Amino acid sequence: NDAVLKAGELLQNVISTLRDARNKNQIKPKDAIELFIQTEHNAPYQTIQNILAKQINASSIQFTKASIGSSIVVALEKDKFYLVANQAIDTVSLKENLLKSLIYLSAFFTVSMLVVIVGYIFIKGIGGVNLSFLTSDYSADGSGGILPMIVTTVYTVILSIAIATPIGILSAIYLQEYAKKGKVVNAIRFATESLAGIPSIIYGLFGGIFFVVVLNLKYSILSGALTVAIIILPVIIRTTEEALKTVQDGYREASLALGSTKFQTLYKVVLPSAIPGILSGVILSVGRVVGESAA
């Protein structure tokens, strides 16, 4: 009859859902479970109770009728698992709500600080920006412009990117595509990660000693570009490596199966597929160059 069919459907629903909750460690073995159920027909709850206790290894199962719509709520200690139809919705707990609130609060605080800083700079500085300020030479008395800074920054960006990009991309290709995994490769990757974490002032001291004094390049755009190129080199290497990792092995295998050499596969298949990731690393490096040259 309808009551038996309804009981069978309810039993399958509850068993599958509670098993999912058990697999996700939301319900532990031998936990006492209380089910609040609303059904349209009278069902043999005692039979369902006995079967469920064996199926999900619970110490006790108690049924209570409650007007909660068409949902089934499993009350386990202080947490509640809302079960609808054959699927389980994620646990609604105080910890998750608190974590979400902290995430939203942090994002709001960060964006607010950014808006305040940018807005303050814009409001205070927009009045002093004009064509003469952008196109005139620097003056020590403060009446000049920033044209030399703009020109030297552009030169530094072009030179440093031209130096670091080929070296970084080729290094990443070697580490990812040609080098055999071992202590040497691990040492190179460790050195790359270490370089990425060194403060820029250390790079500046190194550039001042090595490029300016030892190589006698003096205080020049070339000395600055070489120094900044070393700074951005780890970023380009790591981003290029990650971009190459995202290219599916199936592309390489298909190219090699068609008779292409490893170099042809790399040049015509792998690199074109990895270009978006490589360009992202180069763009990030440009921002780093602008910041460091200004400092």
Descriptive account of the structure:
The chain has helices at 2-23, 45-55, 94-125, 131-135, 147-178, 183-196, 200-214, 221-246, 249-257, 262-294, and strands at 32-37, 60-65, 72-76, 79-84, 87-88. It is of the alpha+beta class. A 5-stranded mixed beta sheet has the order 2-1-3-4-5, covered by helices on one side. Strand 1 (32-37), helix 2 (45-55) and strand 2 form a beta-alpha-beta unit. Helix 5 packs antiparallel against helix 10 and helix 7 crosses helix 8 (221-246). The radius of gyration is 32 Å and the shape is extended. The termini are far apart.
Biggest sheet strand line-up: 2-1-3-4-5
Total count of strands:
5
What fraction strand? 5-15%
How are helices and strands ordered from N to C? HEHEEEEHHHHHHHH
Ranges where pLDDT stays below 50 over 5 or more residues in a row are: 37-43, 63-92
Number of helices: 10
Rg calc = 32 Å
**Mind describing the biggest β-sheet?**
5 strands, mixed
Query: How does the helix and strand content classify structurally?
Result: alpha+beta
**What is the mean predicted local confidence, pLDDT?**
76
Overall, the morphology is extended
The span between the termini is: 82 Å
Oligomer: single chain
Question: Can you give the helix content as a percent range?
Answer: 55-70%
Task: Give the topology.
Layout: H1 2-23, E1 32-37, H2 45-55, E2 60-65, E3 72-76, E4 79-84, E5 87-88, H3 94-125, H4 131-135, H5 147-178, H6 183-196, H7 200-214, H8 221-246, H9 249-257, H10 262-294
Parallel strand pairs: 1-2
Antiparallel strand pairs: 1-3, 3-4, 4-5
